[in-house]
Amino acid sequence: MNEEQRLDASKVTQKKEEKDYSQYFQHVYQPPNLRDARRRGKAEVEYHMDFEIDERFKGLGKGRKFFIRTYGCQMNVHDTEVIAGILTALGYEHTDTTDDADVILLNTCAIRENAENKVFGEIGNLKHVKQNNPEVLIGVCGCMAQEESVVNKILKSYQNVDIIFGTHNIHRLPNILDEAYMSKEKVIEVWSKEGDVIENLPKVREGGTKAWVNIMYGCDKFCTYCIVPFTRGKERSRMPEDILDEVRDLAARGYQEITLLGQNVNSYGKDLNLDYNYDLGDLMRDVSETDIPRVRFTTSHPWDFTDNLIEVLATGENLMPHIHLPVQSGNNDVLKIMGRKYTREEYLELVGKIRDRMPEVALTTDIIVGYPNETEEQFQDTLTLYQEVGFEHAYTYIYSPRDGTPAAKMEDNVSDQDKKDRLQRLNRLVTHYTRDALSKYQDEYVNVLCEGTSKKRDDVYAGYTDKSKLVNFTAPDDGVIGKIVKVKITETKNYSLMGEFVEVLNEEKVEA
Ligand code: SAH
Ligand code: SF4
Ligand code: F3S
């Protein structure tokens, strides 16, 4: 986004908001506006290779500590790694508790109402931290910060929040913090329209075994229920070479697995205007030729799942045989008003094509129940589709109206009780299929990338199989951590597998 567009965006919104909250505006005040967020900018996305911390901000964090709490999807988890990278470059140290933090950031998710409620609860809890230490800076960032209703609510009811910034201007964090320290006023800087693609942002990755790699930002699909196209802006792909450089660097540093990330990775490349055709299939092929042992990607939209992609995935090797393919509903009328742009039949045809080329593939999905006016019969179509595909797992949700989306304006005649009841019935089916998929592993051998010890016990190790099944297993010592190992499954549970270490398959040592 160029300067002119940005000023344009802020002019419109400032006029509207200035009256109500003017006491906060002496310094940076750039609030979000969902209507602006909907308008896709015509300007070409610019690629900046040159992120650098300005000299005047270096040392800003000296002697100070930061704490970040992350909500939402992998995109947010990865954004937190970037935020931590910037803060570390500024001289801040990480801390695990809010008690000794000088900066507390909540990286938020707006996908459903209960996700937002959790954040408001947490902001409330932080009031006592501010009372004990009035110098602490409390910040809200991420997808909720892109919503004007949220920003207004924070300004009105949560005086303890000092800074608010959005998903498009994370690289502005040094300026925002500096402004907050200098002015001692609230600093609100949210760009309603997406920014440019900025390469070489510093990152502090969580762990040295698995890494997230962004391949694109934003979403242009505008499913009628979804807030993401508003909070994340238009689709912007990173250049193939920049992605491949990042992957090669991760492989050289001993990372064992990468997940290519995007809201809708199947649209990758469409906006790039290259002289040649280059889509997700091409990118996956190039990524598979690097030395990284395992490659995953998320999230796929059934709409652009090309034959090229299926062919590339079918070559196997380091491309993991697990596809998360959200279906949302099994009924054509519901799919239509959701704006998903495929029918039940087309989805099933795609599943058939994928399974023809990859008979062993594990398929998982996302489902929304209780869409406005969803009938019992339409819900039944979702259950039958689930059975027909035989998904190995699903994330299931009750529809939650999101401010500014088309579905939020629809009348809804489905009672809360019916929605809960449908979710319960669907979840029973999901549990049944998940358990069934896991039970097939009894006495089988699987490959597991060991990530560390299990959550509950220090002498039990944990990791995921090629098909993303969680395995807890015994092993002689810590030598298995960070390696891909062969495990014999001794017990199957509802959501995980238990096993015994057999041998290390991949001897490469991972740097911490
Ligand atoms: N880009 C991904 C989805 C990201 S959001 C895709 O298109 O598949 C993750 C999941 O949250 C969605 O798949 C959907 O099932 C659910 N979701 C999104 N908006 C929702 C809403 N308003 N209410 C309930 N669930 C929602
Ligand atoms: Fe939301 Fe649809 Fe985009 Fe997924 S594809 S992020 S559900 S609008
Ligand atoms: Fe939530 Fe934003 Fe991800 S709304 S699901 S954190 S893109």
TrEMBL record:
Its EC number is 2.8.4.3. One of its GO terms (cellular component) is cytosol. It is an enzyme of class 2 (transferase). It comes from the Bacteria. [4Fe-4S] cluster 1 binds at residues 73, 109, 143. Residues 1-20 are annotated as: Disordered. Belongs to the methylthiotransferase family. MiaB subfamily. Residues 64-182 form the MTTase N-terminal domain. Catalyzes the methylthiolation of N6-(dimethylallyl)adenosine (i(6)A), leading to the formation of 2-methylthio-N6-(dimethylallyl)adenosine (ms(2)i(6)A) at position 37 in tRNAs that read codons beginning with uridine. Monomer. The keyword Iron applies. Keywords: 4Fe-4S, Cytoplasm, Iron, Iron-sulfur, Metal-binding, S-adenosyl-L-methionine, Transferase, tRNA processing. It catalyses: N(6)-dimethylallyladenosine(37) in tRNA + (sulfur carrier)-SH + AH2 + 2 S-adenosyl-L-methionine = 2-methylsulfanyl-N(6)-dimethylallyladenosine(37) in tRNA + (sulfur carrier)-H + 5'-deoxyadenosine + L-methionine + A + S-adenosyl-L-homocysteine + 2 H(+). Binds 2 [4Fe-4S] clusters. One cluster is coordinated with 3 cysteines and an exchangeable S-adenosyl-L-methionine. This is tRNA-2-methylthio-N(6)-dimethylallyladenosine synthase. Residues 205-436 form the Radical SAM core domain. GO terms for molecular function: 4 iron, 4 sulfur cluster binding; metal ion binding; tRNA-2-methylthio-N(6)-dimethylallyladenosine(37) synthase activity. [4Fe-4S] cluster 2 binds at residues 219, 223, 226. Its cofactor is [4Fe-4S] cluster.
